[in-house]
């Protein structure tokens, strides 16, 4: 809790407002666009939940890293939410794209979306693991933030898939 | 006598196609060559080394004391400092209130003196009128017109103006010079014009922190603008920020200024290039062998990734744009991922681009420090990746036809 209070006290009012607007854009505008494009409440819920879970995972992860492992959370850790939300948006975008391309077909089945989401999650996982580890191993100065971003990103990719699997029954 | 007709049956199209493909291939190779690390060691005529910021970083802690030490005043001032520094592009800013003083920790590659100007200046702007008992033409006191003690204050101050816009305007000599145009709130316009009317043809002044810039009132002039004595773009940016980042209500001064060690992560260009290159090779070999993607898509995305990164790096090298190596490395990884996803999911490209545009543009304007920089670069790189995917598709088709 101390880390959150410190963070809050050290932000200027301007920073607090801009952060709040950013959170609102992420949590309202992205699901809003998903709804606008697909008109599908399950995809909307999936996008919203995966974004909320991403934010929660990042926040909890940083607290655990600081409290349990005594890592100083410096500004390089700002990369963590950026990278994880970036990856999450790619997941949401691919799902919406596949749904939009195929939902009008006669033989469209939500299972197809799940299968495609699995393929995408698998390929994205592979790309992330190889690229981030290749980079992290050679740059010890930001090893922990990069590996942490990789870990959370992988969780986010598969949580997004599991959410779709659950919602698109 | 009729000359025999010479009929040449040459189809010019394939020849032109050959020439086009050769030219484009040469361009691609040139870009890749420029982008590669250590190119500068082989090319002596032009400098192709990456202009990295890594060594220009500095970090300082400023302790600022204020006249009013109530929480509201301190927080208002912190806001102003933050807006000024963020607007100037200072990479990392932390502000705290400790023992009724403001502690500002700055890590930046920007000019140290200009950053200090943003913290040390109150920039209190008021409109003043000349005192009747002061001789402004006194040859023994040529600076009389500059000192605020020779002026009476008026009710007009910075708060009465919507913003101050700095731009080049034509002077009486016909040259162009920089001016600060004071733009009024619409409700105050009539009242201000009435105020100016009282001094038509006379000099009044704009007092900034005790120094006055004279202004000759002319009712024919539609704008209220004072000259700025610098042409330097960075100085002008500082002036703009000082004018427009809020009005400091309390007096303040810098108590101390301490050098700190900048904690910017150092990244080796060669090592990162090798790491990312090795990862791309392993990824593509695996995808090819596992047959999870068609060879055409693999080739298309590989060419697009190579081109995107090469064009971007070549641009940075040729125009000597300062970059942060660790930021560049993260951007390279994200570009590979985005190019792969866009190539793999053609039907999703539009949606991914819309979502990314929304998030990256928001981060660009609302984010701070390195995140704003990465967001801006990723907007460019996403657009470039999209363009390169189109180009690589076209290139593969052309080569196939040959």
Give the C-alpha Rg of chain B. Answer: 30 Å
Q: In DSSP terms, counting alpha (H) and pi (I) runs of 4 or more, how many helices of chain A?
A: 6
End-to-end Cα distance of chain B: 43 Å
If you average the pLDDT of chain B, what whole number results? 88
Task: Detail the poorly predicted runs of chain B.
Answer: none
Helix content range of chain A:
over 70%
The separation of the N and C termini of chain A measures: 38 Å
**Tally of distinct domains of chain B:** 3
Largest sheet of chain B: 4 strands, antiparallel
Q: Major beta sheet of chain A, specifics?
A: none
Structural category of chain B = alpha+beta
Structural shape of chain A: globular
Q: How are helices and strands ordered from N to C of chain A?
A: HHHHHH
The CATH architecture category of the largest domain in chain B equals Up-down Bundle
- Beta fraction of the residues of chain B? 15-25%
Radius of gyration of chain A: 18 Å
| Oligomeric state of this protein | heterodimer
Would you mind describing this structure in some detail?
The complex is a heterodimer of chains A (169) and B (402). Chain A has 169 residues and is mainly alpha-helical. Chain A has one domain (2-167). Chain A is 83% helix and 0% strand. Chain A contains six helices and no strands. Chain A has helices at 2-10, 13-38, 41-67, 79-102, 110-138, 143-167. In chain A, helix 2 packs antiparallel against helix 3 (41-67), helix 4 runs parallel beside helix 6 and helix 5 (110-138) runs antiparallel to helix 6 (143-167). The mean pLDDT of chain A is 87. The two termini of chain B are 43 Å apart. Chain B folds into three domains: 13-52 and 265-401, Multidrug efflux transporter AcrB transmembrane fold (Up-down Bundle), CATH 1.20.1640; 59-120, Alpha-Beta Plaits, CATH 3.30.70; 123-247, 2-Layer Sandwich (Gyrase A, domain 2), CATH 3.30.1360.200. Chain B is 47% helix and 20% strand. Chain B has 402 residues and is α+β, with helices and mostly antiparallel strands. Chain B has a four-stranded antiparallel beta sheet, with helices on one face. A four-stranded antiparallel beta sheet of chain B has the order 5-4-8-9, with no helix packed on it. In chain B, helix 6 runs parallel beside helix 8 (325-344) and helix 8 crosses helix 10. In chain B, 32% of the residues are buried. Chain B is elongated. Chain B has helices at residues 12-35, 71-88, 112-120, 189-198, 233-244, 269-290, 295-318, 325-344, 349-366, 369-401, and strands at 58-66, 92-98, 101-108, 125-130, 151-157, 161-170, 176-184, 203-208, 211-216, 224-227, 252-260. At the A-B interface, helix 2, helix 4 and helix 5 of A face helix 2, strand 2, helix 6, helix 8 and helix 9 of B.
